[in-house]
Amino acid sequence: MGLAPEKLLLKWMNFHLKKAGYNKSVSNFSSDLKDGEAYAYLLNVLAPEHCSPATLDAKDPAERANLVLEHAERMDCKRYLTPKDIVEGSTNLNLAFVAQIFHQRNGLSTDNKISFAEMMTDDEQMSRDERCFRLWINSLGIATYVNNLFEDVRNGWILLEVLDKISSGSVNWKQATKPPIKMPFRKVENCNQVIKIGKQLKFSLVNVAGNDVVQGNKKLILAFLWQLMRFNMLQLLKNLRSHSQGKEFTDADILNWANKKVKSRGRTSYMESFRDKSLSNGIFFLDLLSAVEPRVVNWNLVTKGESDEEKKLNATYIISVARKLGCSIFLLPEDIIQVNQKMILTLTASIMYWSLQQSVEDSDSSPSPAPSVNSEDESSLGGEVSNLTIDDAASDTTVSSQFENEDPIVACNISAASNVANEDTPVASNNTTEDTPVASGNTTEDTPVVTPDAGVPPPIENEDSPVKE
Questions:
Q1: Range with lowest mean pLDDT among 96-110, 131-145, 432-446
Q2: Can you tell me the distance from the alpha carbon of 293 to that of 291, in angstroms, rounded to the nearest whole number?
Q3: What DSSP designation does 350 have?
Q4: How many Å separate Cα 390 from the centre of its chain?
Q5: How many Cα atoms occupy the beta-carbon half-sphere of 353 within 13 Å?
Q6: Distance (Å, rounded) from C-alpha 392 to C-alpha 386?
Q7: Cα 32 to Cα 42: distance, rounded to the nearest angstrom
Q8: Nearest 10 degrees: Cα torsion 343, 346, 352, 356
Q9: Which of 286, 330, 411, 436 has fewest C-beta within 10 Å?
Q10: Cα(217)–Cα(211) distance, rounded to whole angstroms?
Q11: Cβ count near 135 (within 10 Å)
């Protein structure tokens, strides 16, 4: 199941050809199919009721190819290619033709009654992690497409592409070898450079070597990818905050922002850490989504989250709403229900990224200075970014803890895909006082509240300027 589609089709085709008595092996969709014999054997074993002895007896490849297509049409396969395409070995058209045959009649039996549970990997959580990281890497827009994470990263090339994407200029391509790589030590060289760059980025890679990646150590690969994902996530947040003046973001900043955002809307839900079991009912994240965009949550669809079924409904709705806003999210409802701390962190960061991005876009498009939609962010995070440290209860990113902690290592993507806006997505208003959070500690009860006129941005509060009554 981890094979690329074209390789899976070749494997399927050779399986039936061997049953049909075809002595050759098909390794491509061009030269190996030019004479049409493989097609003739394949269709005869899949649809013997439509077979014709003339197909195999034909001497001319073009004539045989035409008989093959006629056989396929009797199987209700539409003719998208010509006999000439088969004889000339058109790779893409042959691939599409084989896929159509597979779709129409694959000849695979389910009489053995093997359950899907028996086909699942031994570690279901690790399989879920593989899916999340694979989707994240493919969303970055690198040249190589990942089909099977644990197999495809073993030569180090894909990891180098990812590192170059999120930390431009960090890879020395002169010392890297591009696949296909026949010499094993070249793979080790690639992976050694991956680990070297990881250490330069201050990842926790104690007793980790490039050979561990080459050998396919799944836990170490997931641990490295989680730190890579987290680095990318924090860099995206840092780049959006010009007022941070180059100061680094931490997990605690994300936690603090989320709680302040929810509190600013008058909600009582609170997140103590990314491990907080109370998060399983989903109410906090629905409050957070409502805080960043008041009209996006339909509270008639929200349950109390008391039973497992209600929790799943809320978790599914959270993912739907977040994607509706434009957040790039790859987590599953189970990750919220089980309070997977790393997935909870990346979900919160994804919502934070979207919210701050709207603030940046609004400030760029505004013709005159106006108070930020996220004024509470300016006050609360501006001075705390350099002082806050990562709380062990909030996040745990060391490789050693990956082995000790049974919690899954999963992640979601908050890449630039979150820039995509949906036409149906409601847009937060900058001109409503209710949507403007009040900075904690910067206002007093005596401070008058100014209600701006429609279409006119409110004035900037300044000690030296008078406030209009």
A1: 432-446
A2: 6
A3: H
A4: 24
A5: 30
A6: 17
A7: 13
A8: -160
A9: 436
A10: 9
A11: 17
